[in-house]
Amino acid sequence: MDLKMCRQISRLHILRYIGYIGNKKTLYLHKIQCNMENKSFSLSRIKIKRLFGNKNIDWKLYQDVNILGGINGSGKSTILKCVNSILQNEFLEEDTLKLVDSIKLFFTNDIVVKWNKFVCNRIEFIPEKDCSYSYSGLNKEGLVTIQKVQVEQNGEKIDFEDLKKNLNVYFISTFDTIILKDVSDILENKDIKTNLDLMIHNQIVKRNGLIVESVSMYRDEIKKESIDEFAKNYKELFFEKVIDDVLAKKDINVLTKINDKDKLKQFVLDLFKDEENSVRTFFEEKMREIVKKKVISEIYEYLDSFFVDKTSIKDTGSFDFLINNSRINYLQLSTGEKQLLYILLVVFNTNKKTCILLMDEPDLGLHVIWKEKFVSILRKINPNAQIILTTHAPSMVRGWVEHVKEVKQITVK
Questions:
Q1: How far is CA 333 from CA 24, 196, 208, 320, in A?
Q2: pLDDT tens for each residue of the chain, 413 residues long
Q3: How many Å apart are CA 281 and CA 403, to the nearest integer?
Q4: Contact predicate 43/356, CB 8 Å
Q5: Helices 335-348 & 195-221 angle (0-180, nearest 10)
Q6: 37, 318, 343, 377: least CB-packed within 10 angstroms?
Q7: 166 CB contacts (<8 Å, ≥6 apart)?
Q8: Contact by Cβ (8 Å): 320, 313
Q9: DSSP letter (8 states) at residue 194
């Protein structure tokens, strides 16, 4: 048997061993995913004084799902807007500034964010150390409204920026279908017409970037750990198996004149050096396929669980669907379908990190059957997300009845 055939035999054993490691791929995936998880924290309580000038709010939160109901004008949306403004921007926007007097946000790691406002003479005002301030315009009396933010953990003051670095907050509110102007010059897709279209487009771009990043990260991890472990195990296991096979099968013994096991072992080692690059490439490609399939296919599966009359076309850089043998893209979906796609993309793009999802009536425009499984699907996409949402729909609380509060239930004296 010539050297070429010997290499073929060697390659066969190598690929069999790769298959053995491939069966353990879930261990590698789990390890890498654990490294990706953000060691962040969630909200445990929201306290607001004088909401609309006459309500005090005290809402104790679950770490997974929180649903807030209430009649129109009861303050559901205002509560979420205030929380989002403070966590994202440190201060309240002008439209909500006049609606509350003070806010306290409590976290599961004992951090407390304290916000309040007061009116005074800017010239006479002396700021406190380790606090942040924002100043609004003069009123008729020549006084300014000052917002003050203080962050503490177990009595020790900390910088707001240090808090924000470890906090992932996403706010989903109304889904405007306002016609956009002058976007055709900056976007390749000329069919993007509305604000909702643009929001989806941006999330798709982010999603594609995450896929590239994930595949690259897994590839680097494979190079760093899996290949090294493969080589180590190769020396310990592969040599012995190949050598034993060759020596045992006299009819295919390519080295009948070499009966010394050490010499045969060296021959196999030299042979492996010739094959190492191709083995490494093969192994990386297989693992990349596994990762890419895992990362890409998940969101399509969840979409298909909602869309009964159309099927998603997978493995594309966008979102296309088949309906009655006709192909359409996401821009041709209904407003409700676009809204659902946008929410799923936002949650998917959290990359399973610990985060806070603030959603103001995300179920508007969704079918009642979709509403019933909406929260559960979001939890499946990211089980590490704390969901805080408002709704008018009883169907949204299915499976989460104990996690539902009405605004009047969290209103205290």
A1: 40, 11, 20, 10
A2: 444 444 444 444 444 433 433 443 333 333 333 333 345 689 999 999 999 999 999 999 999 999 999 999 999 999 999 999 999 999 999 889 999 999 999 999 999 999 999 998 878 888 888 899 998 877 878 899 999 999 999 989 999 998 988 899 999 986 666 666 655 555 566 678 888 898 999 999 998 888 777 767 766 665 555 555 655 555 555 555 555 555 555 444 444 455 566 666 666 666 555 555 555 566 566 666 666 666 677 888 899 999 988 999 886 778 999 998 899 999 999 999 999 999 999 999 998 999 999 999 998 888 889 999 999 999 999 999 999 999 988 778 888 999 999 999 999 98
A3: 50
A4: yes
A5: 30
A6: 37
A7: 38, 39, 40, 41
A8: yes
A9: B
Q: Which two tokens stand for residue 92?
A: 């309240």
Q: In which element (H, E) is residue 136 found?
A: strand 132-138
What is the CB neighbour count within 10 angstroms for residue 175?
Answer: 21
Full-model pTM = 0.74
The tokens 């996403």 sit on which residue? 170
Please name the amino acid found at residue 333: L
φ/ψ (deg, to 5) at 77: -65, -40
Nearest to 284, CA basis, from 209, 229, 227, 232: 227
Quote the CA–CA distance of 91 and 323 in Å, as a whole number: 47
- Angstrom CA distances, 120 to 127, 148, 305, stand at 12, 12, 56
**CB contact at 8 A, 205 and 189:** no
Query: E strand or H helix at 242, and its extent?
Result: helix 239-248
d(CA 203, CA 209): 10
Q: How many helices (H) and strands (E) does the chain have?
A: 11, 16
At residue 165's C-alpha, the angle toward residues 162 and 166, to 5°, is 100
* Residue 258, CB-side half-sphere exposure with 13 Å CA sphere: 13
